[in-house]
Amino acid sequence: MGYKYNRKDILKQGIDLMSQSGYHNIGVMEILKSMGIPKGSFYNFFDSKEAFIIEAIEFYGSANLKLIDRIEQMNELNPLEKVKAYFNHLIQKNKAQQFKYSCFWGNMSTEVAGQNEKVSQAIQNQMSIIKERFVQWLTEAQEQNILIEVYTPTDIADFLYTNFHGAMVTMKYQQSAKPLEDFLAINFRLLSKN
């Protein structure tokens, strides 16, 4: 019996390969070849590489939302600790992958979004969904008097996400967890009232 494949398999594999090697180094053929799928089959699922990328951005976003939903159920954590837990999960994942990967959105932002408005908009849409959840937690943290109030929850969410992506870039070329660990330790110490 031949290999059973579907849209989700192709999205996962493409995200994995492009998170490691980037958009320009991975073509449709590399994705399919790594899965043993005939080239023509790609176009049964996606109209173009651009259509694939946009759907992959949304698929990656849904995985991030599932992580946030799991963290939301951790009632032992206060709202600020929930934000910290989200980033800590990503840090542990990068350690396990030995710093060979980057954030898929980050790679697509630096390689494609500047030249492709649809890709840019897709990333912005997905990031705004994640940041909205951060804003909810950060608002609760300010209401509980555990988060500084100098900045709005929206400003803090934007800052954390931007800062984290910078730490991811540094992690990649240093091949070290230190930039991510510094991000976590320093930012949450500065933001916390405790």
Give a nutshell description of this structure.
With 194 residues, the protein is mainly α.
Topology at a glance:
Elements (H helix, E strand, L loop, with lengths): L6 H15 L6 H8 L3 H7 L3 H24 L6 H18 L7 H10 L3 H27 L9 H22 L3 H14 L3
Helix pairs in contact: 1-2, 1-4, 4-7, 5-7, 5-9, 6-7, 7-8, 8-9
Molecular structure report:
The protein is built from 9 helices and no strands. Helix 1 (7-21) crosses helix 4. It has one domain: Tetracycline Repressor, domain 2 (Orthogonal Bundle), CATH 1.10.357.10. It is elongated and about 55 Å long. The protein is an all-alpha fold and 194 residues long.
Backbone CA Rg: 18 Å
Shape: elongated
Order of helical and strand elements: HHHHHHHHH
- Average pLDDT confidence is 89
Total of helices:
9
Number of domains: 1
Which CATH class? Mainly Alpha
**CATH superfamily caption:** Tetracycline Repressor, domain 2
Give the CA-CA distance, first to last residue.
Answer: 60 Å
Low-confidence residue ranges: none
Residue fraction in strands: under 5%
Report the helical percentage: over 70%
**Structure summary, number of beta strands:** 0
* CATH third-level topology: Tetracycline Repressor, domain 2
How would a crystallographer describe the biggest sheet? none
| Second-tier CATH architecture | Orthogonal Bundle
- Supply the helix-strand structural class: mainly alpha
